[in-house]
Specification:
268 residues, 10 helices, 7 strands, Rossmann fold, alpha/beta, 2 domains, two-stranded parallel sheet
């Protein structure tokens, strides 16, 4: 925990980096960058309603460009700290310690940008959506679940959850196949590299722009990331164009709250 929080730029002197960077393994370079882009960590105690106290951990980050900096902050810095916290959260709560994690990004044009090959390898994977669905030939069973899914099309988002290997992707592919006559269906096989709601919205905006629907992308470009506005625009784009997007991820999706009508469908 201490190692995750001790991530300020003081641990990443540029003079040392200049000497080591030619022989530095990619993973070590990532760790160096994590420190380099962190301006500091502020830990404070906040008294909330009814006298309850919460410890606030605020990570201050810096980067030359806002969008890339947002991605780096979330993936390289905030997520590892959050994961570390989650491992011990119940123990901390038992001891009366309530934690809140947040981060702020400061634009610093004088900093070095992350090397392109490192960004592409670890952070910059493109959202590759296709109309090709996984094969469902010989589909058997799950007919009740499929019927329930087909009767839930009034929901904005449908999430199928369950343990690994239980057939979630299989039934989702069959569900997508059933919708092809009614919707234009796009399938994306791995959302694991997208960690936040803003990242998801940005990736989808690029995809829609490539399909001749630039409304979402234009809003991000001119007005930034007001997620409520972007969610409303996304709903409008999907509904007006009769689009159905399918995503598969091994992590809890950060976009569960995109919709006010969401069906959580855990497979048994």
């Amino acid at each position: 925990m201490a190692d995750e929080l001790d991530i300020t730029y003081k641990r990443a002197p540029e003079t040392l980096f200049d000497i080591l960077k030619k022989d530095m393994p990619d993973y070590s370079l990532l760790q160096w960058l994590k420190h380099y882009y962190t301006a500091g960590v502020l830990i404070d105690t906040i008294t909330e309603a009814k006298g309850k106290k919460r410890t606030s951990i605020e990570i201050h980050c810096r980067y030359p460009k806002e969008e890339v900096g947002r991605k780096i902050t979330e993936v390289l810095i905030s997520t590892p700290v959050e994961e570390t916290l989650n491992e011990v959260r119940y123990i901390l709560l038992d001891c009366g310690l309530r934690l809140k994690l947040d981060h702020k990004i400061e634009i610093d044009p004088y900093l070095e940008e992350i090397p392109e090959h490192i960004y592409d390898k670890y952070l910059g994977q493109k959202l590759k959506i296709s109309m090709e669905l996984p094969r469902t030939k010989g589909f058997v069973g799950r007919n009740t679940e499929l019927k329930n899914l087909l009767s839930s099309l009034d929901k904005n988002v449908i999430i199928i959850e369950g343990i690994a290997g239980i057939g979630k992707s299989y039934i989702a592919a069959k569900f997508a196949e059933e919708l092809k006559e009614q919707y234009t269906v796009y399938w994306y096989g791995n959302l694991s590299e997208v960690s936040t709601l803003s990242s998801v919205l940005n990736k989808i905006s690029i995809f829609l722009k490539e399909k001749g629907k630039p409304k979402l992308s234009n809003s991000i470009e001119h007005f930034g990331y007001d997620n409520e506005v972007l969610i409303a625009l996304l709903k409008e784009e999907l509904n007006s164009n009769n689009l159905a997007l399918f995503f598969v991820t091994t992590h809890p999706p950060p976009y569960k709250f995109i919709a006010d009508k969401t069906l959580y469908y855990p497979t048994q």
